[in-house]
From TrEMBL:
SUPFAM superfamilies: Bet v1-like, Thioesterase/thiol ester dehydrase-isomerase. Residues 8-22 have a biased composition (Acidic residues). Residues 1-26 are annotated as: Disordered. It catalyses: tetradecanoyl-CoA + H2O = tetradecanoate + CoA + H(+); dodecanoyl-CoA + H2O = dodecanoate + CoA + H(+); butanoyl-CoA + H2O = butanoate + CoA + H(+); hexadecanoyl-CoA + H2O = hexadecanoate + CoA + H(+). It is found in: Cytoplasm; Mitochondrion matrix. GO terms for cellular component: cytosol; mitochondrial matrix. InterPro entries: Cytosol_ACT, HOTDOG_ACOT, HotDog_dom_sf, START-like_dom_sf, START_lipid-bd_dom, Thioestr_dom. This is Acyl-coenzyme A thioesterase 11. Its EC number is 3.1.2.2.
Length: 566
């Protein structure tokens, strides 16, 4: 764990330097030392206790922003990267990323600190949604988090639809739920437990503390997982907590858990919380899905017994767990991709479209927000910037044009017109209309791999070799005042368009335009690209100062926008 810890430490130090420049008045910091009363059988901090602390810090941040009481509405998926031992310190940082009409998103970062070695490492991060009765949303916070929060909200709102689409898909229907005689009946893992909500379990609004409900849910889920594995399980991830309604002091909380499906090295436990008061009806207040593993003495996940689902409802839960596992893998596969991995493109299909779109837009916004851009060269107010991050080189080209931002956005978002002003685009054809905001194009460009340095045209004439790219284009309008228009590009792969003879298949990790409205109805246009090996030759001579093709391309772009200004 030491090497991973060192990597995290370096990464967090870099993040903190940037955050110091952008003070957020809603930020709340909490530090807790882990005592034996907070730990489980392995002398590690229990996840339930950690969720209490996270929820408390996030609530304080939300209330600092709103100026009124807030309650937890949901908490997005959480993946726990490391455990925390007794005697170590948990450092939690929470801040409001964005406020919507009656809700707000709070980002939560959890780090661990070893007091004896002075080492720090990241444990997890999460995004919680809080609601308030006030309709005033207050002042916008740090721009990049504010903007990306809209993309996360977009993902939350379609999550259930993705599950339904997968369940109607033949792929899920073909999942075999038949198991051998050694399989464990799902009914044997069922757990029911009742908790009486007392004043210590309530927050300052006399509602049951959201972190307490989550801790109780983790408790029954752990028991269910233990009944299947007959061992002490480790909680690795939690799918979204969604609070459907409040509970108060005096309520009885009925907590139900059952293992929905067991895969080779992990299992999913479904948990449901219902509240009732005396003779009243049960109210469904929360549901969650938790992924557990059982570790051997070497810290490796053990093989788990299969589960035999119950008829009807059990079969439904079995198939839904399989669908959720596919979504988790898609999301992890898409969002964790780095430039060092080959290929960079991700297979596109309707079930992962929302995550690809989210990753496409948020990656460009995060790249644009970096503070380490350096001016490499400038010509007639067209500027070329570079950014070096470890083994990755990114570049930005920027200039102001006398065209309204909304019009420049409409023109640049029509990627099919780009060959008319960009000599690097020989051909651009729309091959799939995903929805009103997302499109897939095939782009053909000259190859520079074998030709004269810095001259795509010369290379193409010399060798006759072209490159093509399959690009997902995602366009977004501003989330609020000061937020730019965004046109994000990244490579995807389509089975209908495999690499073809006569073309070198290129890949783009992150590219696109941001368009910001400036004074006098003008626009500041910025083009970004994380330079993959196929893209770097087009710009390397400009970065080295040996040519200024970037200037001529952007001049052509400006002329195209001006011609079509009306």
């Amino acid at each position: 764990m030491s090497s991973r810890t060192s990597d995290c430490l370096e990464e967090e130090d870099g993040e903190e330097e940037e955050e110091e420049e952008n003070y957020n008045p809603t930020e709340v910091k909490m530090s807790q030392i882990v005592m034996p009363c907070h730990s489980n059988h392995r002398q590690e901090l229990s996840v339930g206790q950690l969720l209490k602390w996270m929820d408390s810090a996030a609530c304080l941040s939300a209330e600092r922003h709103a100026g009124s009481p807030c309650v937890t509405a949901s908490m997005d998926d959480i993946h726990f990267e490391h455990t925390i031992s007794v005697g170590q310190v948990v450092n939690i940082r929470a801040k409001v990323n964005r406020a919507f009409n009656t809700s707000m998103e709070v980002g939560i970062q959890v780090n661990c600190e070893d007091l004896f070695s002075d080492r720090h490492w990241r444990v997890c991060h999460a995004y919680a949604t809080f609601v308030t009765q006030r309709t005033s949303t207050g002042q916008k916070k740090e721009q990049v988090e504010y903007s990306v929060a809209a993309e996360r909200r977009r993902v939350r709102m379609v999550h259930d639809d993705i599950i339904k689409d997968l369940l109607s898909n033949e792929w899920v229907q073909q999942v075999d739920s038949s198991v051998g005689p050694s399989a464990v009946a799902a009914e044997r893992t069922r757990v029911e437990s009742v908790e009486l909500v007392l004043p210590p379990h309530a927050n300052h609004q006399v509602n049951t503390f959201g972190g307490q409900i989550m801790a109780w849910m983790v408790n029954v889920a752990t028991i269910a997982a233990s009944r299947l594995s007959q061992a002490h399980p480790t909680l690795r991830a939690i799918d979204m907590f969604t609070f459907r309604g409040p509970s108060q002091v005096g309520d009885r909380l009925l907590l139900k858990a059952i293992v929905n499906n067991a895969f080779r090295n992990s299992m999913e436990v479904g948990v449901r919380a219902e509240a009732y008061h005396e003779e009243g009806p049960n109210r469904h207040i929360n549901s969650a899905f938790m992924t557990f593993e059982v570790l051997d003495d070497g810290g490796k996940p053990r093989t788990l017994p299969r589960i035999r689902p119950e008829p009807l409802e059990g079969q439904r839960r079995f198939q839904e767990a399989t669908a959720r596992k596919k979504i988790r893998l898609d999301r992890k596969y898409i969002i964790s991709r780095t430039q060092g991995e080959v290929p960079l493109s991700v297979p596109w299909d309707p079930t992962n479209q929302v995550y690809l779109s989210f990753n496409n837009v948020s990656a460009l916004k995060m790249l644009a927000a970096r503070s380490s851009w350096r001016l490499s060269c400038e010509k007639d107010q067209v500027q070329l910037y570079t950014l070096e991050q470890k083994s990755m080189l990114s570049f930005k080209i920027e200039c102001e044009v006398d065209v309204p931002a909304h019009r420049a956005f409409d023109l640049l978002a029509e990627l099919s017109n780009r060959p008319s002003w960009d000599s690097h685009y020989k051909k651009c054809e729309l091959i799939q209309l995903v929805d009103n905001d997302d499109f897939i194009y095939r782009v053909v460009t000259p190859s520079v791999r074998h030709g004269a340095m810095g001259s795509p045209t010369a290379a193409n004439q010399a060798k006759g070799i072209l490159q093509d790219f399959i690009l997902l284009a995602s366009k977004r309008k501003p989330c609020g005042s000061g937020d730019p228009y965004v046109i994000a590009l990244r490579s995807v792969s389509l089975p209908t368009h495999p690499p073809t003879e006569g073309y070198n298949r290129g890949e783009v990790l992150c590219a696109g335009f941001t368009i910001l409205e400036t004074k006098d109805n003008k626009s500041l246009i910025s083009y970004f690209n994380q330079a993959s090996p196929e893209v770097l030759p087009y710009i390397s001579t400009d970065i080295a100062g040996l040519s200024s093709s970037f200037y001529h391309t952007f001049c052509s772009c400006s002329q195209y926008l001006t011609r079509n200004r009306l």
